Amino acid sequence: MNSGFETWLSDQLQTLKDQNLYKVPKILESPAGGRVKMNGKEVVNLSSNNYLGLANHPKVRQAALEAIDRWGVGAGAVRWIGGTMTVHQELEEKLAAFKHTDAVLVFTGGFTANSGCIPAVLTDKDVVISDELNHASIIDGVRLSAAEYKKSAGWVYGHKDMNQLEECLKRANERGFQKKLIITDGVFSMDGDIAPMPEIVKLAEQYDACTMIDDAHGSGVLGKNGAGTVSHFDLYGRVDIQLGTLSKALGVMGGYIAGSKNLKDYLINRGRPYLFSTGHPPMVAAALIAALEIMQNDPEPMRKLWENTNWWKKNLAEAGFDTMGSETPITPVYVGDEGKAQQMERMLFEEGVYALAIVFPTVGRGKARLRTMPNAAHTQEDLEFALDAFKRVRDKLG
Predict the structure, then answer these.
(1) Residue from 175, 145, 239 nearest 201 by CA
(2) Domain limits at 224?
(3) Does 177 reside within a domain?
(4) What is the rounded (10 degree) CA torsion for 234, 236, 237, 238?
(5) Set 189, 219, 231, 277: catalytic member
């Protein structure tokens, strides 16, 4: 073992600790839910993406068990070699109908969907125009591409700043790029606000640009039956590429790209994470089909999600907490200082509430917050308990 390398690692870890940026993951010891056992302690879990409570739904669990009996536990190969089963095909067809697109291609995760799609559809003759608060998976996908994209070159616009976006599009036309791709989150994962998609689409159409939306936190939360941000704004057929995840509202795992049949066929041939990754275990695909059917046919989980969300936001605000203009279940509680945010997370856990402190580099320096996420599995008692804990911790910290 290289001692110099180990010394470098130790130094880097110590720097993170000195800057209050060092994180140690907590261990979940029970199924995902509103209340969980974590690190040996029962807590109200406010840091889960399980928006609709489907990760532990009886119908979803049963579908997974039945798929194991029928298909076994693995796909056995990369999908294009022979790892695509009929259950994978059925999932993609149902997702395409759900998103009102011609086709869907499923990847092993939302991160790999971005890193598979973005580099595949861009060349060195293209430019990417990106919101400054886009998710890390978008940023990494763009970096893997040959397109021009850097913030220093003026291709990153201020958060939801449509005037800056238009200026980028004007300069892109003057430069004569072959393709201009506007990329934005649908729901921004750290602030909980929604992208102004009607304005973005209008500008894209005006300046002959393509649009891509990462709807990881919009699917299952916004739109008809949770169909997402495009549905929320009734923009069907006007967004070129939609990304969704299968690990949040649907409660299982994976990601997908929704769009035209040509886009799917091209990514099958050029999307590297698809080309070089074994397909999902069949029980995952079957569980997702069951979760999707629940989402489309049972309005109660989404209704409960928004009932809890509205109560939580209203009562946090009345208690004097800054939720940063959030419009969705993602509800940041602004702190600012990284050390204080980490301390607040620790103190809340002792009070029986898990609310993750989000610090640099996930957000900018000095913009730390606790990201809270009410979901359909929380009871009124859970949220009241959590609110009281937030008040007590705030008072202790002065």
Answers:
(1) 239
(2) 58-297
(3) yes
(4) 40
(5) 189
Q: Is residue 7 part of a domain?
A: no
Catalytic residue (choose from 135, 248, 264, 280): 248
Shared domain check, 65 and 180: yes
Catalytic status, residue 217 = yes
Which spans in the chain are helix H? 3-18, 58-71, 86-99, 110-121, 136-143, 162-175, 197-206, 229-232, 261-270, 272-275, 282-297, 300-318, 338-351, 380-397
Output DSSP code: residue 78. B
Catalytic status, residue 248: yes
CATH of the domain at 374: 3.90.1150.10
**Residue 290 and residue 303 in one domain:** no
- pLDDT single digits (tens) 245-299: 999 999 999 999 999 999 999 999 999 999 999 999 999 999 999 999 999 999 9
| 246 shares its domain with 303 | no
Asked if residue 2 belongs to a domain, the reply is no
pLDDT digit string, tens, across residues 187-228? 999 999 999 999 999 999 999 999 999 999 999 999 999 999
Same domain, 308 and 351: yes
CA 255 to CA 112: how far, in whole Å?
Answer: 7
What CATH number does residue 212 fall under?
3.40.640.10
pLDDT tens digit string along 292-331?
999 999 999 999 999 999 999 999 999 999 999 999 999 9
Q: Which residues contact 289 (CB under 8 A, 6 or more apart)?
A: 63, 87, 90, 91, 94
As given in the structure block, the two tokens for residue 132 are 């400054």
Indicate which residue of 99, 160, 217, 313 is catalytic: 217
Q: Is residue 6 part of a domain?
A: no
Average pLDDT in the 5-17 region? 95
Same domain, 39 and 179: no
Vertex 60 angle, CA 59 and 65, to 5°: 95
| Whether the Cβ atoms of residue 311 and residue 331 lie closer than 8 Å to each other | no
Tell me: do 320 and 389 sit in the same domain: yes
Query: Please, which residues have CB within 8 angstroms of residue 194's CB and are 6 or more apart in sequence?
Result: 186, 187, 188, 218, 222, 229, 232, 327, 328
Residues 291 and 306 in one domain: no
- 82 and 205 housed in the same domain: yes
Question: Is 189 known to be catalytic?
Answer: yes
